[in-house]
Amino acid sequence: MPITTNEILIPRKIFSSRVDKDLELDATIPEFSPDVSRIVKVDCTPFTESVNIQDGKATLKGKAVYDILYETDYKRRLRCCNFTQEFSQTVSLPKSNAVNLQAFAESECERISCKLLSPRRVSVKVGLATSFDIEGEASVKAIAVTDDKSTFFRKKTIGFDGKTIKHESVYKFSESLALTQSEKAIGEIICGRIDLRTPALTLSPGRAEIKTVATVHALCEEENAEGKYFTSIKSLPLSIDCSNEAIGEHKQISARLIPTECSFTPELDQYGESRVIKSDFSLGLCLNINEQFAHTVADDMFEKSFDSTPVRATVSLPHAHPKAESSFSTEVKLPPMSPKPETLLDASARSLGTASLVTDDGVKANGTFAVTLLCETAEGVQSFDYPLPFEKVFNGDIPKDPTSVTAEITPDEVIATLHSDGSATVRIIATARICVCTESEDSFVAEVTKRTARGEESDEPMLVYCFPTEDEDLWSIAKLYRADPESIKTANPAHFDESGALFDRSKPILVKT
Question: Model confidence at 80, in pLDDT bands (50, 70, 90)?
């Protein structure tokens, strides 16, 4: 019988990099919008539309959505306008023998500035940071394990985590949110946003249930009170059912939810008052699924009719450990602001990236939250921006010799309190997800060399016995006499345990009949 080989594909991280890109937008205020007197606040949200690999390069294509909140030249009223700009980011990849390459990339806004060029023109400059991760698969040969009676194998199973499977989908929601009795009726909704809590997953074969809480922030102008504003904040529990045949209870799966589109309009309640916020929004869901693989390979082999030399291959097998989730909070006292704020309209925070390090105490994560306070002052509505550094050590069982450790930090809630001197205390409640990856080395028979035919054995019946030595077991005896291990075990039921170890070495072993 010919000896054949199989191909085992083992995932490898080929490349990781974080690259910067500057964007500049020179835009004209839409015709239906009033002139700009003063810019209050500007935000930029980048979205990834595609990531492709071609000609040794990985390219992200995306769009940047700009939201500009400004004060008009008429009674200092607030208005908001939006712009969209396409962008791309490319990195060169190192040479590699890996196959089935796939790229993952996400961009985030690290800094932003806006300049008013004229009552109808603005110039926005943005610094983006894009994180690229390139994965591939290394092809490794392994002898094909068969059940024919001319070749015998000592078998074992190797297990590892497969390559990442990405599942992306978009879900649309439409909700009507009633104001509380203490809130004024709405004259106009100036702008709004949606913050999402860290999602929780419940998995079953082929299905994932993702639960989160969407917090709707709507900046409203009071009805019949030009220039008076309030922010209505509503919490909305959400549940998403996602179907994909790759989803399983025992697989490593992470979920990310991103608001992609949202619009807010005032509606009348049952009494004919403008006291309902109609919220229409879309959420982009990205599931990263790591399937676990197990292969049966040959730990050793021999042939009955051939002299051959097994050649072993040693490989590194990747393992992604279950993510450890932990909540924490950080608090800071901000110095007095100028001009002095009179009323806090809104508070928000976003993460500017996190660095992780394994210490004797656990995983130490440090990074920065960008905090924004929107306040009413004697000079009109103002935006105040502050960096809030944080450092946190997460205790727990960390596997030995990790190959990578990452901490995903998501701010879930921002609580801000104004003080009489114009200062503020900001407290951020966040969720950290710690992801640890390790590798284990294993070896198996990859190929056979020096394969030469042996002389034919006599067909005459004979009995062959052996007296085992201290270091012999079922496999070594079978290999020495070129005999079927299972036949030896059947002929000597009281001599071997399940693993092939000998119970009693004082008695002879019947090898051949």
Answer: very high
- List of residues 6+ apart from 487 with CB closer than 8 A: none
DSSP 244: -
What phi and psi values does residue 480 have, to the nearest 5 degrees?
Answer: -65, -40
Please check whether residue 9 is in contact with residue 99, taking contact to mean a CB–CB distance below 8 angstroms. Answer: yes
Going by pLDDT thresholds of 50, 70 and 90, the confidence category of residue 58 is very high
Please count the helices (runs of H) and the strands (runs of E) in the chain. Answer: 2, 22
What one-letter code names the amino acid at 205? P
For residues 273 and 266, what is the distance between their CA atoms, to the nearest angstrom? 10
Give yes or no for residue 461 having a pLDDT over 80: no
- Closest by Cα among 502, 493, 491, 494 to 467: 502
Q: Closest by alpha carbon to 9, among 310, 248, 293?
A: 293
Residues 6+ positions from 399 with CB-CB distance below 8 Å: 321, 436, 438
pLDDT digits (tens, 9 = 90+) for 139-153: 999 999 988 788 999
Whats the size of the chain, residue-wise?
A: 513
Taking the C-alpha atoms of residue 54 and residue 72, their distance in angstroms, rounded to an integer, is 47
Better pLDDT: 223 or 246: 223
Using the predicted structure, report yes or no on whether residue 513 has a pLDDT greater than 80.
no
CB of 295 within 8 A of CB of 142? yes
Q: Once rounded to an integer, what is the mean pLDDT over residues 5-10?
A: 94
Sequence-separated (6 or more) residues with CB below 8 Å from residue 153:
143, 145, 146, 298, 299, 300, 301
Backbone angles phi, psi at 396, to 5 degrees: 155, 175
d(CA 370, CA 463): 83
Identify the CA nearest to 173 among candidates 278, 65, 287. Answer: 278
Domain 458-513 has CATH 3.10.350: yes
Longest distance between any two alpha carbons in the chain, whole Å:
112
What residues pair up with 88 in beta bridges, in sequence order? Answer: 61
Structural domain boundaries in the chain = 1-144, 146-304, 319-439, 458-513
Q: Are the beta carbons of 98 and 137 closer than 8 angstroms?
A: yes
d(CA 127, CA 129) in angstroms, rounded, equals 7
Rounded Cα distance between 281 and 215, Å, is 12
Q: Compute the distance between CA of residue 372 and CA of residue 345 in angstroms, rounded to an integer.
A: 11
CA distance 194 to 264: 11
Residue 259 amino acid letter? P
Q: CA-to-CA distance for 497 and 475, rounded, in angstroms?
A: 12
Q: Identify whether the C-beta of residue 328 lies closer than 8 Å to the C-beta of residue 473.
A: no
Detail the DSSP E strand segments found in 97-120.
99-118
Higher-confidence position of 383 and 147: 383
pLDDT, average across residues 397-425: 92
Tell me the C-alpha distance between 166 and 244, whole Å: 10
